[in-house]
Design brief:
Largest sheet of chain A: 8 strands, mixed
Order of helices and strands of chain B: HEHEEEEEEE
Order of helices and strands of chain A: HEEEEHEEHEEH
Number of helices of chain B: 2
Distance between the termini of chain B: 34 Å
Structural class of chain A: alpha/beta
Strand content of chain A: 25-35%
Number of strands of chain B: 8
Structural class of chain B: mainly beta
Oligomer: heterodimer
Shape of chain B: elongated
Largest sheet of chain B: 8 strands, antiparallel, barrel
Distance between the termini of chain A: 81 Å
Shape of chain A: elongated
Strand content of chain B: over 45%
Radius of gyration of chain B: 19 Å
Radius of gyration of chain A: 26 Å
Number of helices of chain A: 4
Chain lengths: 211, 195
Amino acid sequence: MKRKILIIVGFFSALLLAGCYPDGPDYAEELDVVLTYHNDIYEFGTKTTYSMPDKIVKITGNLQEGDEPVFVPDATAALILSRIVQNMDALGYDRVNLGSEDTDLLLLPASWETTTISYWYDYWGWWYGGYYPGWGWGGYYPYYPPVNVTSYTTGTLMMNLLDKTELGTNGNPVLQWAGAINGVLTNTYDANRVNTAIDKAFNQSPYLKTN
Amino acid sequence: MKKIFFLLVFTVIAISAFPQRNLTALQYSIGFGIGDMQDFIGKTSFRGFTFDYRNLATANVGVGVEFGWNTFYEEMADDVYEYRNITYSGKQWRYSNHFPMLAAADYYFKPDASLSGFAGLGIGTMYTLQNTDMATYTFEKDAWHFALRPEVGVLIKAAPGVGLTLAAKYYYGFKAGDLPAQAFMTISFGFVFVP
């Protein structure tokens, strides 16, 4: 009898602990992450001008030779580019026309989306039965292991700063600064959320400030 | 690691080879991180339990095993982190799971009294699984540590064959793999069954 009590107490203790295992994030914006990289021997302080395209290219990964690139819709791109300009202004840079000889730096924005689909068989739920409305506690168990499917799409905005005079061994300009903002996409464009992330990318890069 | 495993197996076989009085305890435990463990997660853990079994070699000495599980968790505020010339910011969710598996021996100061203090030592292994979740990514580290666990506590006789226990335990898992030493203290309380 005591052994049975012990087993039952042990079983429910484990169940209780498993049941109160801590949860993670509750909201999509909590998953936003901002990452910046910089070339630590490059002197940003001596630069004063930059140029930037008026469009944001969307990297789809399936562009064939001769295909037209895809761009972020103009209205959305305008909001993003405007926020980048505000931050560059605050750091002391002047924006000049693309292709101008006076350009010290080239700022190239790009974006892409990634969809992740995952699924798993919930054997525990299958055995337990009580997880499913209508089945009732200790009632009938499903005859199949339920398959849970989840998917999410993340969006990434990349901001690359290049100096056309600093070339790598392959002849291309070397990346001097990169800011990447990544987050789970929702149904609507949240300007406040994107602006906050862009601001963070620049705020966590104080070395970009001009002298 | 094999040596620790065989030590545990040997202990289980040795204690079951001598059918004497035994003691089984199930305890809920509250954990407090120490040192590097506390640096990783500063919050107190309210998710833990231990299972203890002792064979009473004499009235004062119990030899047996301990298995446990302690989960530490902390939701970090949106913060900035640096790694070389990379800076990243966002929220983090940190999890640290510890599974001690120990051969243990206790000394009971007044085994026949209704309230008896005891002191013990555990030795064996502790598996640690740590996750740092950030954005949609998780960064995972795990290791099998060589572990020591001194403890002090009291046993209270509540009814024939059933008692209560309250103990303070200090777990120390030595540096292993990618993880530094993992140390935490627990306050454990629960039921003791003496057939």
